[in-house]
Amino acid sequence: MNAMTNFTLHSLKVNRVRTAVTIAGVALAAALLTAALTTYFSFTDYLYRSEAANAGTWMAYAEVGDMAASEGDIARAKGDPRVTGLATLEDAGFAELTEAQQEKLGICMPILSVSGNVEDIAAIHPSEGRMPVNPGEIMLFATWKDYGGVSLGDTLTLSVGDREAVLAPGEKSAESDGSMEAAYGTAYNVDPTTVEIVDGTRLNSSIGYLEATQDGGIFNEHLVNKRERTYTVVGFYNRLGYTLSTGVGTAGVTVNEPETDGFGEVFLTMAGMENSDQVLACAEELFPNDHVVLHSAMLRYMGVTSDSSIWSTFFGIVAVLAMVIAGACVSLIFNAFNISVAERISQFGLLSSVGASRRQLRRAVVLEGCVVALIGIPLGLVVGLAGCAVTFALLGPAISNLAGNAAVEFYVAPNVTALVAAAALTLVTVLVSVWIPAKRASRVNVIDALRNAGAQRVSKKGAKAAAKAARTGALWKVGGVTDRLFGVGGKLARINRKRGTAKGRAASVSLALAIVLLMTAGSLNVFLGSLVGVASGGEAPGEVSVTAEFSTERDSQPSDLSHSEGDSQSSGSEDGGSGESTDPAGEKGDRSDGRLSHSAASVLEGLNARFASEAAEFAKAYDYLAESNGAQGIGWLLRSDAAMSLPESMVGEAFRVEGGIDGGKVADGRFGTVGTILYLDNDAFDSYAQSLGLNPADFRDGEHPRAIALAQGYGNNGDVYQLLDILREPGTVEVLAAAAYEGRPAHVGVSYYAEDDTGPHYVFLPYVFGEDGGAVVDEQLTLDDVELATVPVEVAAVTDEVPALLGGPGSGVMLIVPESLAATQSLGGEAPLFTSYFDAADGDHEALAEELATRGGEFFHDGPYEMAFYSYNDLVAQRDATQQLAMVVNVFCLLFTVILALIAMANVFNTVTNSLILRRREFAVMKSVGLSNRQFRRMIMDECASFGVAGLVPGPLVSLAVSWLLYSAVTQSMSGLPFQLPWTYVGLALIMTAAAMGISVAYGMHRCKADNVVEALRADSV
Questions:
Q1: H helices of 106-157, where?
Q2: What's the confidence (pLDDT) of residue 182?
């Protein structure tokens, strides 16, 4: 150990506070980088393990139409060095199920013959028993055990056949050609395969069940080539992963099946792939005649590049934060070493005078930085890993639940790359920070250093300005506010500011940086909080909800629409009514087929009557449910949809941008869409209207309906979340409430249209249901072909405030009206959706849910209308998930804020304290000529105030730029988010920086007062 090394270590030892603060800054920087990188790798590791458990480790699979014909391709793939694993699933037929079995087990049971390492590659795992290994063995879905009465070891005899498309009854052979999209790859965001369906087409397991009355098509299906197969049950599985998901039911898994159906899927894992394009190219090269699907999620977690917007947001945020952290560390370490060099300038001059070279002096400062890094970096790595371990131990279960796979544990996954990267980045930051002070130390002038002239280096301009300010006339001239507040101390502070010393600038930079760091943490919290709010869709307003909808028979007989209160009038009905018009206006007439012929007005009349009746029934239902044991009613609402026409002045940007709202400009210059009308119960609506400063009574006129509209809504176009600007001002909306076509009720939708001279636009598209209530009439109708009944609705207010009962905004135009309006206006609504919310008085939400299910079933069973569906939902789990998501984000933001605050405060303390300690000799001179302690304190207060003012200007400006960068990163996965500053954090930043400055000044002044004036004047250095 040479003399320069001893000198360096001695300097670090003597200046314990500065050394400790600098080490703490380095450690915090390393800890924050370690935490950020470890969090990334831990999340990636968890997502990889979760995806492997759900779907398998396959990277791509080929959909093979004929496995026998592709044996050569499969053999070539097995021998390819790029392929590390291969597994196959092949259709071996479809087992016929009884009607009782179909209720629990699906339409039929596909039988898949598997080969290869399907447990790892395809995530096919038995939950009980084992995988089949011999012919004649089968593994079934767990519902066969729970509801089918099948146990391990049982022998199961099945009638197995092949699925075949067949024309539905009444369809003509001329219409037998059709096409449909099979569910190929749709779960992983790839283009689905389109297969042509004709009469007699063989259907594989990936194609959904065909039933014309349900899907509106022209085909049904049946099983052909039936044969009897006997299997021994050796296992059950309870997880329907991607590979076992079929279009018709849960699959049975077997091996070496002798009679296969031709269709199969070949799953591949590969090595040496750098991006998804290489994976796709390799798979397509191996299977050139087959459709290839990529496992996009798995490739992303394996490190293969992806275009996912949420990952772009993540990487953008990490890049911005890394930049801010590096800047904070450079400032902290640079200021510490710069002040250290200035403080010891006379020591460097003395060393230079006795023969120390510039290189040795430079190395001494660099060695000091390396020693600090040697201690601070390992400490930071340990602190970062420990912090992640503690945080993940607390939040791990919540994160696993949010990710949808609680069975896969979330834990810290230390990564050597992350640790090395954090250590290297911190070390580079330290070396960059000490390089300029090291060069300054090596260029010291021996004479100036021995005189300590360099410790308070002043520029020529600064010296001239200070001399001018110190002239007799200027010195005693009463200055501004600071001179009046601080007296002589203020004048001395003003002279010092004129000198423009580097220490003053360093203090201002430190304060500005502190503001930047704290506002960065605030911006991160605000923007991530907005993203969480959109992703979660808002919080449910109660603990239990009850949802119901009455059945509306879609029949061409419009007389059914006029029934109210369960009235069974049969005028014009199929079972033989009078068939005469009962409408006084004569709007109804006879059709040649004996059915009533209706106008749009009569259709609307029937809709209004039916809607009013259903609304009244639902109001009774809510009152009845609210009387349940332990129930506290919160409120209820009705939801219905209707086509709407809006003036251009009302609509927002969501109507004009691609991927916005479902609707747009129509030929007449107005804007069309299918919007939602919400009928809130009267109490809930009154509270909502009053909160907006509106009079609820203004919305009760059934003849002139008025509504409140939401200005914004949430959406997701598949790439990004969207905050949609839907409406911008009040106006009148024309609701297309009813339509009639050739005497039959018609419905109106909105569709994109671009085949005329006016260019791309939307059109209102009328359609009519068929005579059997099933398929839509295959006619291209326009508004000119139908008779319309419209209802103008005045939108009295447009607001961002969402009603409490709604929980969160929707994704389109939403008009909010009181329940009382339902007595006279359906606004085109048919079969409204009823939703009611309740809290459990005793906290037992599970018991309340069961009670509501029972009472609701009793009420609706005896009601006048047949139920389309009735359900209840325990919303506590949903609420807990939302709260867990918010908690995870808030905890991460809080930890990030704390670490950034510590770095900021350490920087301020180090800079301000050492700048004061370095001026002890200057302060001693002032005291020796009569400066009192009071005047001294006032001078320091004035200087600190000037530091703060100087830091307040660049700090917010830089913070604004950093906030914009974070905003830009977040908007890659959420469009429409407004840019906003975290004003709470702005105030917090000002308070914390002021407190840090006060503590720093108090400590520095304490150190200065502790010195004897004579000793301070004699001292050459600290």
A1: 118-121, 143-146
A2: 40
DSSP-derived 3-state class of residue 522 = helix
Q: What CA–CA distance (Å, rounded) separates 440 from 963? A: 35
Tokens at 303, concatenated? 């490190």
Asked whether 243 and 255 are in contact (CB, 8 A), the reply is no
Q: What angle, 0 to 180 degrees and rounded to 10, lies between the N-to-C axes of helices 876-917 and 358-402? A: 170
Q: 427-448 in b/e burial notation, b at 16+ Cβ within 10 A? A: bebbeebbbebbebbbebeeee
Rounded CA separation 736/671 (Å): 13
Q: How many CA atoms within 13 Å lie on the side-chain side of 236?
A: 16
410 dihedral zone (left: phi>0; alpha: psi -120 to 50; beta): beta
Whether 898 contacts 525, CB under 8 Å:
no
Q: Do 277 and 105 touch, CB atoms closer than 8 A?
A: no
List Cβ neighbours of 575 (8 Å cut-off, separation of 6 or more): none
Question: Is the Cα torsion angle 137, 141, 146, 148 positive or negative in sign?
Answer: negative
Integer CA distances (angstroms), 208 to 183, 246, 261, 290, in order: 7, 8, 17, 20
Residue ranges in 692-810 assigned as alpha helix (H): none
- How does DSSP classify residue 615? H
pLDDT of residue 183: 40
Q: Which residues pair with 676 in a beta bridge?
A: 641, 814
Residue 432 Cα to chain centre, angstroms: 37
Q: Which residues contact 799 (CB under 8 A, 6 or more apart)?
A: 692, 708, 709, 710, 711
Dihedral of alpha carbons 645, 651, 656, 659, sign: negative
Helix (H) or strand (E) holding 498: helix 481-499
Provide DSSP, 842-872: TS-HHHHHHHHHHHHHHHHHTSSS-EEEEEE
Looking at residue 584, its pLDDT comes to 32
Supply angle C-alpha 473, 478, 481, rounded to 5.
145
- The contacts of residue 940 (CB under 8 Å, 6+ apart) are 489, 493, 916, 1001, 1005
| Residue (of 309, 852, 269, 1006) closest to 544 by Cα position | 852
CA 146 to chain centre: 37
pLDDT profile of the chain (1022 residues), mean per 10: 73 77 82 84 85 89 87 91 93 87 82 92 92 93 85 92 85 46 40 67 84 74 90 90 81 83 88 88 92 85 64 71 74 72 73 79 84 91 90 79 72 89 87 81 68 51 51 52 61 64 64 77 76 62 87 46 34 32 39 57 89 92 90 91 91 75 82 92 94 93 92 70 83 91 83 60 77 52 85 93 82 91 88 90 84 84 79 74 66 73 73 70 73 75 73 78 81 72 78 77 68 55 40
Yes or no: say if 948 and 912 are a contact pair by the CB < 8 Å rule: no
Query: Considering all CA atoms of the chain, what is the largest pairwise distance in Å, rounded to the nearest integer?
Result: 124
For residue 448, the model assigns a pLDDT of 61
**DSSP-assigned beta bridge partners for residue 181:** 194
- pLDDT at position 710, please? 92
Cross-strand pairs, 677: 640, 815
pLDDT for 569 equals 30
Of 967, 976, 980, residue with least CA distance to 317: 967
Read off the amino acid at residue 203.
L
DSSP letter, residue 880: H
Specify the pLDDT at position 595. Answer: 47
User: Quick count: other Cβ atoms within 10 Å of Cβ 7?
Assistant: 20
DSSP string, 625-672: HHTSTTEEEEEEEEEEEEEEEE-TTTB-GGGTSTTSSSEEE-TTSSEE
Q: Which of 821, 772, 814 is nearest to 797 (CA)?
A: 814
